[in-house]
Amino acid sequence: MIAGFINTFRIKDLRKKILFTIGLIAVYRIGAFVPTPGINGQALSAFFESLADTPGGSLLGMINMFSGGAIQRLTIFALGIMPYISASIILQVLTPVIPALERIAHQDNGRQKINQYTRYLTVIITLFQAFFISLWLENPQSFQGYQIVFNPGWAFRFTTVLTLVTGTMFIVWLGEQITEFGIGNGISLIITAGIISRMPAALIQLYSLVDPFSPAGGQIQPFTLVIMAMMLVLVVVAIVLITQGQRKIPVQYARRVIGRRVYGGQSTFIPLRINQAGVIPIIFAQSVLMFPATIAGFFKNEGVNKIVALFSSGSILYYVLYSGLIIFFSYFYTALVFNPKDVAENMKKHGGFIPGVRPGKNTSEHLDHIMTRIILPGAVFLAIIAVLPSLVSATLHIPFLVASFFGGTGLLIIVGVLLDTERQLESQLMMRQYEGFMKKGRIRGRK
């Protein structure tokens, strides 16, 4: 593996791509510390610290995680990449439903048009979010009495909307530049960089809980710390196995003679991933459960708060609903992104068939039958990983920020993105006749 990392910097083009990617991520992290004008940063940080120990987090906490802590300081990148993710999900959901979008998606340059529509929708979503955030910041009751804005009014609202919209679109541009000229998926790497940036704060909190001379010292014993480390390794290994796990469906292509040439006749396979939906089900489930509680917090109504308390994080009902929603959205999102009918038609068009299965409708039903069954273990695993940080926090009595790195959306994203980036680096090395990160036998080139 060390030799593989050294080889990445021996290739000039690859070295430029890596340095370019690191440089743009550094720009993103610097922007996460540039404050929005007119904000009392100390009061805002104090408010978010009061939310830090919430067992399941909050909608604001989830947005703060994706923005790398930028919303806690309300910087120019406060909204982060979440509006772009929301726009992408909305268009993915609407494409199979709206015939016009489906026709565009099947065109030669359909992907470029869909990406352009995603940018337009991102601007619209960001405008609405930024405007309501400016109104929310002006209301001291929403912040437990903290005065967040120095000079409320339309001047502050206009400045905030302009700053946040510009910051979000600049992040989108950075991600696209990384994808085009760097290594890996730019948007995913930016999200990962934001999540990893919270690790130092989590390690500091963990050290204060272990250090016997700190105010909270001795709360975590050395034996408990060893168990936590072993548990972290096991969780990461399990995530890697589920992320990489797939069912290979064999496909045979019939031979075709065109002129004097013979086409087809090869065997291949269709990889059906166990976790086809990624972290999207967790994001959907968190949004559905946390949004009512977050909205109820803005209105001081005792009856509403009692109802919301039944579904608050930490209760058994919350975990049951949370797990059920994750499993539901796993099936729902997979049905949107994977269409067995289209796969069967494309195979039939190119002379492909699954051995023992008739082409056309039977192939579509066969793929749907297999996909429906392999989704369940992946969905159940997602539910366990999503609930795990809350259980670790409640069982070991540690802050949720520390427990969040033992599972949840953040750890899934980090592992998935790093695996994808490693695969891209591996392919770049193999193209240039270099050994990759993992040895798979001797590479034989031309003599």
Task: Give an account of the 3D structure.
There is one protein chain. By secondary structure, this protein is mainly alpha-helical. It folds into 2 domains: 1-197, Preprotein translocase SecY subunit, CATH 1.10.3370; 218-406, SecY subunit domain (Preprotein translocase SecY subunit, Orthogonal Bundle), CATH 1.10.3370. The chain is 66% helix and 5% strand. The strands form 2 sheets. The chain has a 3-stranded antiparallel sheet. Strand 2 (256-258) and strand 3 (261-263) form a beta hairpin. Helix 2 crosses helix 10 (186-196), helix 6 (82-94) packs across helix 8 and helix 16 (340-349) crosses helix 17. The longest helix has 36 residues, at 361-396.
Order of helices and strands: HHHHHHHHHHHHEEEEHHHHEHHH
- Which class best fits the helix and strand makeup? mainly alpha
CATH homologous superfamily descriptor of the largest domain: SecY subunit domain
The mean pLDDT is 79
Quick one: overall form?
globular
* Strand coverage percent: 5-15%
Biggest sheet architecture? 3 strands, antiparallel
CATH architecture of the largest domain: Orthogonal Bundle
Could you please say which CATH topology of the largest domain applies here?
Answer: Preprotein translocase SecY subunit
- Report the radius of gyration as a whole number of Å: 25 Å
Number of helices: 19
Total number of strands: 5
Termini separation comes to 26 Å
Return the domain count: 2
